[in-house]
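Page 47, continued from p. 46.
Same chain as before, 159 aa.
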Amino acid sequence: MADLIKWFNTKKALKMYGESVIDLMKEKLYAHDKYASGELIDSLESYVEVEDMKQFLYVSMAEHGQYVDSGRRPGSKRPPISAIEEWIGVRNILPGGRDVRSFAFAIAQNIHFFGIDPVPFIGIFYDNVNKLNELIEDGATEDMEDYINQIVDDFNRNQ
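Result:
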C-alpha cells in the first residue's frame, strides 16, 4: 500500500523560493550601502518547517532590519546613541577631534531632524509571490505524480 504523500518537491520549491528571495534582499541592501557590520545581511535566512502535513516558509533577520526597511521620518524619536557608537566603530569613522559619544549624539540629532530614507527590502518576499505560486504548483504536481506512480506500482506488484 502506498504511504502518504511525501511532498518532497513542494518543500524543495519553498526552499528554492526562500533562497531566491534572500538573494534579492541582499542585493537590494548592498545596492543601498546597508552592510556596515554585515550583521543584517548575514542574519537573513529562510527555512521551511513542516507541521501536520503543512509546510511553512519563514524568512528571518536581525531585529534592526525593520528599521532599515521602514526608515525613520524626520522629527521622529532619536535613535539610541549606543547603536550609533557601534555603527561608527564598525564603519571606522573618525570623529575629527570629537569624542565618539558627542559625534554619535550629533548623528542622532541629524537623524532626528532629517530622518533616514527607507530601503524597502522586506516586501520583496511578497512582490514575487506569483513565482512562489508557480513553484508550489509545479512541486505539488510532481509530488502527486510520484504518489500516483507509487500506488500504480504497488497495485501492479500485488497482481
